[in-house]
User: Which sequence fits this backbone?
């Protein structure tokens, strides 16, 4: 099992979300930082939970502080799709991770 699959399972990501990149940075001997990039797989449309497909209009780049992984400070960088819903209003997709596991958003 590779690290992308391990972190996908630890974050409980569901398709079409995936881990795009993982960066491990040792800031100093006592501080280790983990940056995980999450990406929505489909580029042209958003698959709503009701099964409908809506055109993606843009992506909002957000960063959230997650609880630590393996004694490493962890940040999730999420490319969050915005789409035109059935009322032709721009709507932001929900976060792909449980908000209870997030310490803050930036």
Assistant:
């Amino acid at each position: 099992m590779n690290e992308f699959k391990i972190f996908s399972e630890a974050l409980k990501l569901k398709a079409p979300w995936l881990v795009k990149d993982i960066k491990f940075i040792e800031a100093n001997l006592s501080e280790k930082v983990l940056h995980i990039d999450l990406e929505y797989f489909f580029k042209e449309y958003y698959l709503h939970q009701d099964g409908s497909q809506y055109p993606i209009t843009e992506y909002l780049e957000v960063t959230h502080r997650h609880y630590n992984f393996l004694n490493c400070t962890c940040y999730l960088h999420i490319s969050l799709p915005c789409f035109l819903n059935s009322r032709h209003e721009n709507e932001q997709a929900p976060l792909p991770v449980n908000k209870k596991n997030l310490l803050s958003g930036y």
User: Anything to note?
Assistant: The two ends are 31 Å apart (CA to CA). The chain is about 10% helix and 55% strand.
